[in-house]
Amino acid sequence: MSFRGRGRGRGFGGGYFKSEPFVLFPDIELPDAKAVPDERTLVIRNSRLLKYWKASPYYIEENVSKKNESIDIERFSDWSKPKNTAKRNSLFQVLQLQSHNFPKELIGDSRRAQRSAKKMRWNLDSGMLKLDMFEKFEKDLEDKEGKEKKGDGEEENSDEDQGEESDQSYSDDGDYNENEHFDDDEDDYNMADDHDDEPIY
Amino acid sequence: MATQYGIKCAVNLITAHFGDLVAKVCECLLRKGPLTLQATVRFTELTSSQVKNCLLVLIQHNCVQAFTLEQSVEHGDAAKANTQYIALFDNIIHRWRFSKFLNIVSQNLDKQCVDLLEALLQHGRLTLKQMSDRAKSGQNEGDDVILDAVQEAIIKLLNAHFIERCPASEPVLTNPTKQELAARKRAAKSAKIVQEQETLEQRVVEAAAPSEALRFLLVTQTELAADGGKDEIDSSIVTPGEKRKRDALESETEYGAADEQVVLWRANFEEFIRHLRHKACIENVKTRLDDGAVTVLKAMMEATRSTEKKVKTENSVPLSLSSIYEEVIKSEEGRNITFDRVRASLIQLSCPPFVKADNESYSIDFKKIIELAQNEEAESIVLKRYGKDAYRMFRLLSNSGHLLETDKIADATFVEKKETPKILYKLWKDDYLQMEKLQVTGAKRLQQFLLWKVNKNILREHVLDEMFHAALNLSQRVAFESEQEKEMLNIPKDKLRDRLRKVALLLGSSQMKLDDAIMLFHDF
Predict the structure, then answer these.
(1) Which of residues B321, B344, B364 is at a domain's end?
(2) Domain coverage including residue B423
(3) Would residue B199 count as lying in a domain?
(4) For residues B18 and A58, is the Cβ–Cβ distance under 8 A?
């Protein structure tokens, strides 16, 4: 019977491999920790740069489009809820998309150039800068360099307000724009399945 | 040349900085070599739009360079020019060292310059306008004051060659003709020393680079307005030899002030690596010779730095004794050094030959200093891993530079003849040594001898790969520890957070120290 053959194959394969418990960081003999020179400044600068990039427009996340995400029907009560404002600057606000800077095939899309009209927020929103373990060390570093950065705290907040306003550029004109996004005849959920060429009666 | 773990390190870096998507595109280019947009989309299985955005980010941050290979026209067909993208491994790895670059600027220039460089490192490339806008958004002062301050900082950075104009977006690479290829083959056969052929990456970077005259040139608005700015162009290059280039440049420079606003600037990694190379050479010489010799060497490096064409310069430009003395007394440490002391230091530096003397002119032998440092590093690894006997054998083979037989090695290193082959075999298995078998027909029987040798090139690549492996392990540990820290945020345990802070500092410092060793084997 066919089962016997399959079973033998599996048994043969299984007997060859020993399973070892997976250890993420196996114990090894480590060098003396005191022999490592303290590079505090370098570590703090690196940490600052890393924080910036994680919150920057250059960090590309796998964006799931809103259409696929929400299976629920959009309700009237959802309109009063605050929309998800984009926390990152758009990539196209900062990139200089001219032909002498990037290859033509990458900037061919005309929509990309239009989006760059929004103002770029140069200072990160204070909410995006997560607390990290070098907060204490950074304060020491800043004290050494001077007190100039304390003045930036107010600037960051005003930039944040400007950013939120610019993100809500799609103004709510009430009912006048309602029909723009109104799909009457198209049924999103069944469209993919509809391969019939028969006329609709 | 990217080693296996080098590629893994690079991908790990890009993932941490720009996310998984960008890292996927980057890995594809690193493993498969230069690809077109369509091929990249096919291999990564991402959408065309995603790949385009990733490539834009990688180009913006100088990790990828686009280029076009000129294809020969055959049978009356139109010449097709397909844009290809090549990953720049060196530039990706430099991202580890941005903090070191910032340190160099903070030691040599003011805070405004450090701030500007940080902006360029954060964004990869910026125009003059973007740099001004950024400065304005953080300041309360008037626009003109800020613009002047930014321009002043840019000029200081340009004069020190710490920033440069960005390369061309899509240079055309010409294929070598059949005659050129044949000439290269003949040259390679006749040459006794193996010469490194220019890789495709090097050719692309060279083709894209701006001309030396333009590279560090900023034409300011006031100078353009005044009489075409013929004699007052604010250039960092004011050497006599460059005058002809400047004249030619004036005809090229049809930029208006508006055009200068859109020119992209970036950090000049080459200059920073040069600084770090010099620093490493001085550190190495410090361990062997006294302060006087180190001061003289430092002065020679300062005097000849601007004349170095590439980072891996083997020898510095020759200097006379009097010009060395003039440079020495400029520095603080060298103020009280006498002429005779300088001469004595130069003699000291010639053994081992850190400085070569030729008809009363002296030049630094960088290659020798770096090689000695690399040997020491490799020897210390062997000592720690395999013990003193293996270390003595390795040193013997490394210094002799040719094949030695097992028994001879045993005699020279005072190790028992039974133990010697075992140790040598262990080193050979781990790629630290090369082995050759020699069969000799003696009087009565066939004798087999084992010959051992250290191949410096292979050893260098192997040690480098191991270092990248260690760096990757450290990065993963750092990421793991910071994940732990995130979970602890909700539980305010000061002691635990302090411990984690110390751990992160130790791991971070270890990464920086390891990076010094990686630069020694890869960049210097």
Answers:
(1) B364
(2) 370-454
(3) no
(4) yes
Give Cβ neighbours of residue B428 (< 8 Å, ≥ 6 apart): B434, B435, B452
- Is A36 in Cβ contact with B506 (below 8 Å)? yes
Please give the Cα distance from A98 to A107 (Å, whole number).
Answer: 8
Chain A residues in contact with B111 (beta carbon < 8 A): 145-146
Look at the block and give the residue holding tokens 């069944």: A190
- Residue A111 with chain B: CB contacts under 8 Å: none
**Position B177 in a domain:** no
Cα B294-B299-B300 angle, rounded to 5 deg: 100
Give the CB-side neighbour count of residue A1, counting CA atoms within 13 A. Answer: 3
The number of folded domains in chain B is 5
Place of tokens 């973007």: B130
Q: Which two tokens stand for residue B178?
A: 């059949």
- Which is nearest to A95 in space by CA: A47, A125, A63, A56? A56
- The Cα B21–Cα B32 span in angstroms is 17
Token pair recorded at residue A195: 């391969």
pLDDT tens track for A147-201? 544 544 444 444 444 433 334 444 444 555 455 555 555 555 555 444 444 554 4
User: Which residue does chain A place closest to B171, by CA atoms?
Assistant: A103
Tens-place pLDDT, residues B368-412: 999 999 999 999 999 988 999 899 999 999 888 888 888 888 888
**CA distance linking residue A71 with residue A166, whole number of Å:** 28
Q: What backbone torsions phi and psi does residue B305 show, to the nearest 5 degrees?
A: -60, -45
What residues 36-95 of chain A have any CB closer than 8 A to a CB of chain B? 36-47, 49-50, 52-54, 56, 58-62, 91, 94-95
Residue appearing with tokens 């009912």: A175
- B36: closest chain A residue by CA: A105
